[in-house]
Amino acid sequence: MLDKHNNLEYNYKILSQERKKQKISQETAAAHLTLSSDQIKSLENNLDNGFITAHFKYLVLKRYTKFLGIDFEKVIPQPVKIVIDDVATEMVVKVGIKNINLLQLLTLKRIKILIVIGLIFIFYLAVEFDIKPPASEITSSNLNIPEENHVDDDIQPLSPLSDNFTQNKQVEMITKKKFQEIENTSDIGSIEFICSIGSASMDKVWSRVNPERPATYFHIVSLKKQTICTIDNQGVLKQYDLDEGAKITHRGEAPFKIQLDSSISELYFQGWKVYLRDNDNFIQLNPIDMTTELN
Q1: For 121-170, how does the pLDDT look when each residue is reduced to its tens digit (9 = 90+)?
Q2: Mean pLDDT confidence for 182-193
Q3: What's the pLDDT score for residue 236?
Q4: Mean pLDDT of 211-221
Q5: What is the domain extent for residue 163?
């Protein structure tokens, strides 16, 4: 959820706790998710470094929690839906609600009980004193009046609330249609690769003296299936879905920034192979002028 400053609020401490419990290093997590170690550190400390917007950070956070096997609702508790009596309205209790207005619900049921007791008392008086209806009143037993729909007074108990539900007291009334639109958001399973080349810090900056080819393109050989993305000096962003053994030549204006899985990639620039270490997932290729070098 976003606070008043449009910053993402979540239980970030659970991320590092679960990662350490599984004995996974930040570098291993970054390599598996094709992210930088700095981005993993930012997620685990609720920092904005490496994320261009709060929405982008939210998407990466969902992907990281899935990798760790954490229920996303433990990190960012979802709104709690309460249906009262009819389907006309629904109450969504947002994160930060204190005591969830249970007192109001109990008060509503007490009022209903008092009304029922009052009707019973009036009926008792009518029987005791033999009260008869006025002569002008018309009664009929054959009126075709539909029965009143039964409304279930039972309201399902609320699930336990985390400590994050103890800040503000806000209840928003929305229609059922709007609530359904909120529930139809995409599932984490559809998020496989997130291109963050525009905001992440570089793990490796590479250039080579004595270039043998122009700096207008680079080659990549993918040893396994993966997705990569790149951005050039003109801000042109391109994403590629590569199968095992795929080879591509990307053209543009250097320097190039590339996001890839370094453990399954071979990269070539200006006629030389770029040697990648583990976790070199963000690489910047700086050009060297061939004319200058020849002179």
Answers
A1: 887 777 665 555 544 444 444 445 444 444 444 444 444 444 544 444 44
A2: 48
A3: 95
A4: 94
A5: 85-134+145-180
Say if 266 falls within a structural domain: yes
Q: Is residue 40 part of a domain?
A: no
Burial code of 253-262, b = ≥16 C-beta within 10 A, e = fewer?
Answer: ebbbbbbbbb
Q: How many domains does the chain have?
A: 2
CA dihedral 159, 163, 168, 170 (to 10 degrees): -10
Q: Note the pLDDT of residue 49.
A: 87
- How many residues are recorded in the chain? 295
Amino acid, single-letter form, for residue 185 = T
- Contacts for 93 with CB less than 8 Å, ≥ 6 apart: 79, 80, 82, 100, 101, 171
**181: confidence class by pLDDT, cuts 50, 70, 90:** very low
Give burial (CB, 10 Å; 0-12/13-18/19+) of 33: buried
User: Within this chain, do residues 167 and 223 fall inside the same structural domain, yes or no?
Assistant: no
Q: Is 264 helix (H, G, I), strand (E, B) or coil?
A: helix
